[in-house]
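Design request, tokens follow.
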């Protein structure tokens, strides 16, 4: 197998099957067979094109083993590998839709919320709330306390705070209290501007 796109996102799902997101919009879902002290071998390979030729920028898995897919300029997709069907979510069309179609980052937290970083704000939704025709996404942006609208990376810490990297520093979100704290160069950062997927949790 020789992919035609460049690797942009990598996910090892909760069922231990890796997924690869490519710049040509292709999602490659691999199934491996591994034995003790023996190299793994590829037992199955499936390809999907959920982003319609828009680059896949991030991947996340939820507790139902669905794959959430961030599409650059193409919105959000949720793929059920069991059926091979993907549902699309885009900005506009109704009041509670995504804030922007340029989706850059994804994260699923311990409370089964999915956080969606776009180039115009942070969105969030419980994974069990997407079954309706018009699911309502919560939104956070500059007016809510974020330092910038471009969300490059998302991570949860051990205390349940959600951290996001932006073009103008870091933000720490307290989902329980709806509070946001900002951190910039004046607080010890080397630089305020982060790049895509810029996030790290200390082991």
């Amino acid at each position: 197998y020789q992919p035609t796109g460049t690797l942009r996102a990598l996910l090892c799902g909760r069922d231990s099957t890796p997924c690869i997101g490519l710049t040509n919009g292709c999602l490659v879902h691999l199934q491996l067979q591994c034995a003790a002290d023996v190299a793994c071998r590829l037992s199955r390979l499936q390809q999907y094109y959920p982003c319609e030729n828009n680059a896949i920028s991030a991947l996340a898995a939820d507790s139902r083993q669905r794959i959430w897919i961030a599409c650059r300029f193409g919105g959000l997709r949720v793929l059920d590998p069991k059926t091979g069907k993907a549902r699309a979510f885009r900005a506009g069309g109704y009041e509670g839709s995504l804030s922007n179609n340029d989706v850059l980052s994804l994260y699923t937290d311990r409370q089964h919320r999915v956080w969606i970083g776009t180039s115009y704000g942070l969105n969030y939704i419980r994974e069990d709330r997407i079954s309706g025709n018009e699911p309502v996404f919560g939104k956070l942006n500059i007016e809510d306390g974020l330092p910038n609208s471009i969300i490059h990376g998302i991570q949860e810490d051990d205390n349940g705070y959600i951290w996001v990297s932006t073009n103008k520093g870091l933000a720490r979100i307290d989902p329980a209290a709806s509070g946001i704290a900002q951190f910039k160069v004046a607080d010890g950062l080397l630089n305020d501007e982060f790049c895509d997927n810029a996030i790290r949790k200390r082991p």
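Comment from the thread starter after seeing the answer: thanks! The longest strand covers residues 38-48.
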